[in-house]
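REQUEST ID: PR-0412
SUBMITTED BY: lab tech R.K.
PRIORITY: routine
TASK: structure prediction, single protein chain
INPUT:
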Amino acid sequence: MGKTKEHSKAIRDKITEGHKAGKGYKTLSKVLGLPVSTVGSIIRKWKAYGTGVNLLQPGQPFTVSFRAEARLVRMVKADPRTTRRELREDLMAVGTLVSINTITASLVTGLWCLANVALALAVALCRRP
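STATUS: complete
OUTPUT:
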């Protein structure tokens, strides 16, 4: 998914001031040349947070190192019935703190990469003279 365009503070202020003055979404979008959905999202953000500025993520996202991801994939390949909670406890014993959702995402990408490597090797072996 690509980065969305961030509108200037002046445009966001014009939208909020117009909304305070009682103008509708369509009127504001025609005057400023922006889509109605953009005007609506800026107004909704202003109503919810009191500001139109793009807010930061509430905390640092969990990341999994390459070694930890490889460890997860090895454990799942050895015992496919391993639960995410067991995987998390194993990583915590090693010293890596991750959430269960992060483990799921890592396994999806890790197993997908392994499947692609296995497929590439199989195709290479089939094409070998």
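NOTES: The helical segments are 9-20, 25-32, 36-49, 66-78, 84-94, 100-127.
REVIEWED BY: pending
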